[in-house]
Amino acid sequence: MTHQEREQYWQQQVTEWQTSGLSGMAFCKQQALTYHQFSYWRQKLLASASSTKEPVAGFATVAYPNTVTAKEIDSTGLTVSLPGGITVTGLHAGNVALLGDILRQL
């Protein structure tokens, strides 16, 4: 088996595992696969897939809890918590562009 054939075989196994809803260990037992090899290829294939994707710029969907009313959102704005303990508060339609400028400076 060539390297390309082996990679295609394991890509197929990883794809089937992702749609199976099973844990990696349970999938390997069901398919009579060695869990160690499966883990190696899963990590390798998922890492190469994520490194080839281009970053996507755009808007994120924000879902407010059912307890928040439209009036509260308009008066207080949105609070965003970022990694490293950074919190941005009071976001609303008038200052969202400012958030992009702040994030680029970080």
Question: Can you tell me about this structure?
Answer:
This is IS66 family insertion sequence element accessory protein TnpB. It comes from Halomonas llamarensis. The protein has helices at residues 3-20, 24-31, 35-52, 70-76, 96-105, and strands at residues 78-82, 86-91. The radius of gyration is 22 Å and the shape is elongated. Strand 1 and strand 2 form a beta hairpin. Helix 1 (3-20) crosses helix 3. The termini are far apart. It is 58% helix and 10% strand.
Please outline what is shown here:
With 106 residues, this protein is mainly alpha-helical.
Helix-strand category: mainly alpha
Continuous helix count: 5
User: What is the helical fraction, as a range of percent?
Assistant: 55-70%
Total beta-strand segments: 2
Output mean pLDDT.
Answer: 74
End-to-end CA span: 48 Å
Summarize the main sheet.
2 strands, antiparallel
Provide the spatial order of strands within the biggest beta sheet: 1-2
Protein name: IS66 family insertion sequence element accessory protein TnpB
Helix-strand layout with pairing:
Elements: H1 3-20, H2 24-31, H3 35-52, H4 70-76, E1 78-82, E2 86-91, H5 96-105
Antiparallel strand pairs: 1-2
Helix pairs in contact: 1-3
List the defining traits of the structure above.
two-stranded antiparallel sheet, 2 strands, single chain
